[in-house]
Amino acid sequence: MNRKITIIDVAKRAGVSKGTVDRVVHNRGEVSKKSEAKVRKAIEELHYEPNLYASVLAKKTDYVIACLLPEFSEGEYWEKIWRGFEAGGEQVSALNVTTRLTSFRKACAELLEAAPSGVVMPPLFKSDCIAFTEELRRRDIPYVYVDSKLEDDNYFAYYGMPMYKSGFLCAALLTERLREEEVDQVAVIRINRDKARQSDPTVNRRSGFMDYLAVNFPKCEVHNVFITPSDPKGTYATLDAFFKEHPGVKLVVMMSSRIHLIGRYLADHPIAGGRVIGFDNLEKNIALLQEGLINILITQRTENQSRYAVISLADRLLIGRMPARRDNYMHMDILTRYNQENY
Amino acid sequence: MNRKITIIDVAKRAGVSKGTVDRVVHNRGEVSKKSEAKVRKAIEELHYEPNLYASVLAKKTDYVIACLLPEFSEGEYWEKIWRGFEAGGEQVSALNVTTRLTSFRKACAELLEAAPSGVVMPPLFKSDCIAFTEELRRRDIPYVYVDSKLEDDNYFAYYGMPMYKSGFLCAALLTERLREEEVDQVAVIRINRDKARQSDPTVNRRSGFMDYLAVNFPKCEVHNVFITPSDPKGTYATLDAFFKEHPGVKLVVMMSSRIHLIGRYLADHPIAGGRVIGFDNLEKNIALLQEGLINILITQRTENQSRYAVISLADRLLIGRMPARRDNYMHMDILTRYNQENY
DNA sequence: TAATTTTCCGTGAACGGGCACGAAATTTCG
DNA sequence: CGAAATTTCGTGCCCGTTCACGGAAAATTA
Q: Does A94 sit within 8 Å of B53, measured CB to CB?
């Protein structure tokens, strides 16, 4: 029948040895033009494709993919990314590819010792990151962005959410079916950040959000309410003060993954007839969905970002395959209490 | 460093040969209790896991997974299932596993000739299917259901949507934020079926839908409107007549994948201020979303069902792995015009 | 033309595991 | 106890690649 074509079949047909075929397949040189042509012809005619498994088995080199992420505690957004790294690592572990999870901070230093074959990371601290990727480029180490990306020219691939559009979607869902006079006030809960060091990862999302409102509800007033994650009491007080002062606000959103920070307040003061939308399916956020305290979570398969990233890099290292697309925008899922179960 | 543990390492530690270890690993017998114990201990201690790739390479047997589906034309629901079969087949093709796509009708006959190692199928024609799976059971050929399932005891796994819940979700989305008096009438578009042969695959979904309404909007009146897919003109006329007679109907759903059948009518008579919900992301349905003629599509990664099915079966055949869950309910996605792009 | 360099290519030992074969060890039985 | 039957186990080849090694052929130089 249609037995698999092997390298030997190709060699025979081209009238050379398997070593030569191998050299041609991997562009390793040391082959005369004539032989190369014959081999390529034979490959073409027989539709030869190397057996990945035999190849992996025989290959000696071990690849290490460094996966960078910030330090995080349980239940945080980064835990999902971390899971994806693990899943991807598992998937490629049999391929002589090892993943190494590293805290972002230590990465640069560590790179000097153990030179990895590839790097996956979210570009978190912009200036540090630029220096770092510069170094990677110099060393010819491919790197993949997850979560968000910088606009340098050298990243190998990017996997993440379309941030601007997610803000747009958020605004659309928030205001759907509402008449203009019902969308007069919106509260955007925001996180107090140390602006010197941390860039705000939600800027693009926020502009998508604002743009949608500006077009569809130009008269809508947007209140920014700043809270501090480490200070639950202060958060509660801030919210309390805000909603006392603006009792008409029925529409609430949180652009980052931490809508759960206002869960406590919502439990005590549910927003009747309003709508609350957050992002990302952290367990604590899902809980709020289930309790009906928030209406919608806009999420994505966060783990997939990091998993795909690892796999795409392994593909590149092992068989030189490029990803189908360089920029991979993940689908945005809409989660309600009725469809969160099998997510 | 942490070199991979091989069968030789285990053999050495247990003081036997690799042949014996192999026999233990695959429960092939011909091993004394004493040796087996030693080997198992060594495996345990070294955390040995056989290298899948080496294993596949060495194994000679070829597996064939038969994938059954009904005949379909382009753009239909089954095309997605078909894609998944192809994707899954591709993924396992390097593992000596071949997939063969077969029309449901011919399957029984063909089975008599080429005995496949496994079967994946949607249980479409109930009585035929029961006879068929009986035969499979007798021959000890594992089979996996996709799309929907029969409640026999022998299927190896099932991948599909939670039908009842999808109806529930549909009703929830349809009526969200509406006051009781706004949900007085609902139109359910249905397909005329030859009841003798074809079972209605949406019964469970419809009961989920009805149950939600019964609880939350007990006074709501549900109109069933039957159309015939092969007769666009008749469909148009039927719809026209219906909506003329019931101008108050603003909420419309279609439980099957064919909401696009009413696209033509909707284009001419958009339902202002109403809501139209359909199922499944067929291209034609997506187009309606984009044009704003329908509001929501409840979908799933249909291709994944069939892909997972193929892969799970390959796993079972190659390394005897059971799926984590026997029944795998896929997540239901909510698609709107704002998040359909990267799906 | 012989010697030397360079280019090209074939050979064969891995890689980790499956499995057939036959030998060794053990049990059974006369 | 010895022979035969049975159980248990080790050996070695094979799967399709990769790649180091070294030899043959071609090109260059003297």
A: yes
Please name the nucleotide lying closest to A48, CA to C1'. D16
Give me the residues near strand C, CB below 7 A. Answer: A 15-20, 23, 29-36, 54, 57-58; B 3-4, 6-8, 18-19, 22, 25-26, 28, 48-51, 54-55, 57-61
A49 closest-nt by C1' vs CA: D16
A71: left (phi over 0), alpha (psi -120 to 50) or beta: beta
Shortest alpha-carbon distance between residue B260 and chain A (Å): 22
- CB B223 within 8 Å of CB B188: yes
B76 and B170 assigned to the same domain: no
pLDDT in tens, A234-280: 999 999 999 999 999 999 999 999 999 999 999 999 988 899 999 99
Question: DSSP letters along A99-155, please?
Answer: EEEEEHHHHHHHHHHS--SEEEE---SHHHHHHHHHHHHHHT--EEEEES----S--
B331/A162 Cβ within 8 A: no
Asked whether the beta carbons of B87 and B137 are under 8 A apart, the reply is no
> Rounded to two decimals, what is the model's pTM?
0.83
Edge-to-edge strands, sheet with B157-160: B97-103, B63-69, B118-121, B143-147, B157-160, B327-329
Please name the helix (run of DSSP H) or strand (run of DSSP E) that holds residue B45, with its range, or none: helix B33-46
DSSP label at A326? S
Q: Does B64 touch chain A (CB under 8 A)?
A: no
CATH number of B35's domain: 1.10.260.40
Residue B44 lies in a domain: yes
User: A191 in a domain, yes or no?
Assistant: yes
- Residue A335's SS3 state is strand
CATH number of the domain within which B102 lies: 3.40.50.2300
CB B16 under 7 Å to nucleic chain D: yes
The confidence band for A1, taking pLDDT boundaries of 50, 70 and 90, is very low
Q: Say if B46 is an interface residue toward chain A (CB within 8 Å).
A: no
Strands A118-121, A97-103: pairing kind: unpaired
Whether residues B146 and B174 fall in one domain: no
| Pair (A76, A31) in one structural domain | no
The gap between B304 CA and C15 C1' (Å) is 34
Distance CA B338, CA A165 (A): 8
Confidence of residue B197 (pLDDT cuts 50, 70, 90): low
Residues of the domain holding B33: 7-50
Residue-wise pLDDT tens digits, B220-235? 999 999 999 999 999 9
CA pair distance A158, A120, nearest whole angstrom: 9
- A169 in the same domain as A123: no
Nearest Cα residue to A310 out of A108, A156, A139 = A156
- Same domain for B95 and B25: no
Instruction: Identify whether B210 is part of a domain.
Output: yes
d(CA A48, CA A53): 15
Quickly count: other Cβ atoms within 10 Å of residue B164's Cβ. Answer: 16
Question: Distance between CA B168 and CA B212 in Å, rounded?
Answer: 6
Q: How far is CA B186 from the centre of its chain?
A: 28
Helix (H, G, I), strand (E, B) or coil at A186: strand
- CA B96 → C1' C22, Å? 30
- Comparing CA positions, the residue from B59, B66, B69 lying closest to residue B114 is B66
Q: What percent of chain B has pLDDT over 70?
A: 97
Total domains in chain A come to 3
Q: How confident is the model at residue B39 (pLDDT cuts 50, 70, 90)?
A: very high
